[in-house]
Amino acid sequence: MNRVESIGEILHQVVRGLGVGKKLNEQRAVVEWPEVVGDRVAAHSRATRVDGGRLFVEVDSSVWAQELSLMRRRILEELNNRIGTGVIDTVHFVLGGTTADGSSCPRSREDRQDGRG
User: Fold this and answer.
1) Cβ atoms of 93 and 54 closer than 8 Å
2) Which of 23, 73, 74, 102 has the most neighbouring CB atoms within 10 Å?
3) Residue 77: how many CB atoms within 10 A of its CB?
4) For residues 49 and 27, is the Cβ–Cβ distance under 8 A?
5) Domain count along the chain
């Protein structure tokens, strides 16, 4: 008798077979950033990418970079609880200007290039 498998089980097997499970979990860290840090912090920051276990997060000011640096351990723990232990090794905060909706803020980038920011 053939065993019926759910689509979720089949997809899990395909992902594992392709060897892209870790990359998918890394991308989940970017997607889940706003939920992990909450609305207030997400209004001033945006996870942009993961490279070699390092999550890069743009922040809109040096004050927020400092604040989030102090929260780094808790954020890292919560991320790894959600996506899998050891997926993200560290969080790196970079000044990058974001808007409340999480999109990049071109004005902030121009100000920094001109030496005003």
Assistant:
1) no
2) 102
3) 13
4) no
5) 1
Q: Could you report the per-residue pLDDT of 67-80, keeping only the tens digit for each?
A: 999 999 999 999 99
Range among 21-30, 40-49, 84-93, 99-108 rated most confident = 40-49
Does residue 2 lie within any of the structural domains? Answer: no
Which residues lie closer than 8 Å to 79 by C-beta, 6 or more apart? 29, 32, 36, 55, 87, 88, 91
Other CB atoms within 10 A of residue 54 CB? 13
Of 46-50, 58-62, 91-95, 104-108, where does mean pLDDT reach its minimum? 104-108
Domain that residue 103 falls in: 7-113
Among 27-31, 100-104, 108-112, the range of highest mean pLDDT: 27-31
CATH number at residue 36: 3.30.300.180
* 1 in a structural domain: no
